Task: inverse folding
């Protein structure tokens, strides 16, 4: 499958990995929007949150727990933001489900 994040997941395209386990990997975003900007992706190809089904309940929960653990590891004790852009209006540019973990600066609301 011609998917950038699938290729990163199998090591075909290099990335600065900070975490990996049987079901997901986390790596630095190539265009960081904050001092800490990590992407957490399932190894399995799921296009977006719009495509998730009941069978992915555990996997989605796992991704959130990994985000919280990485926030601790990155010492984001003042707070952080987890984002999942979905679809065209959601600003998703890579069609492989991913969480953004952003931190190290104050975030603004509402988002652009
Ligand atoms: P989206 O816009 O789909 O929510 O997020 C995609 C993210 O992937 C963007 O923040 C973008 O900077 C990042 N990205 C795009 N191509 C690459 C790449 O080749 N390597 C890495 N590490 N990140 C990428
Ligand atoms: Zn993929």
Result:
């Amino acid at each position: 499958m011609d998917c950038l994040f699938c290729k990163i997941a199998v090591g075909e395209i290099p990335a600065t990995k900070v975490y990996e386990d049987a079901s997901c990997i986390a790596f630095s975003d190539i265009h960081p929007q904050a001092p800490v900007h990590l992407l957490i992706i399932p190894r399995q190809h799921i296009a977006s949150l719009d495509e998730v089904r009941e069978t992915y309940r555990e996997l989605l929960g796992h991704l959130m727990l990994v985000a919280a653990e990485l926030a601790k590891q990155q010492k984001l004790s003042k707070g952080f933001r987890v984002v999942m852009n979905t679809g065209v209006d959601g600003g998703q540019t890579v069609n492989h489900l991913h969480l953004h973990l952003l931190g190290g600066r104050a975030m603004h609301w509402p988002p652009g």
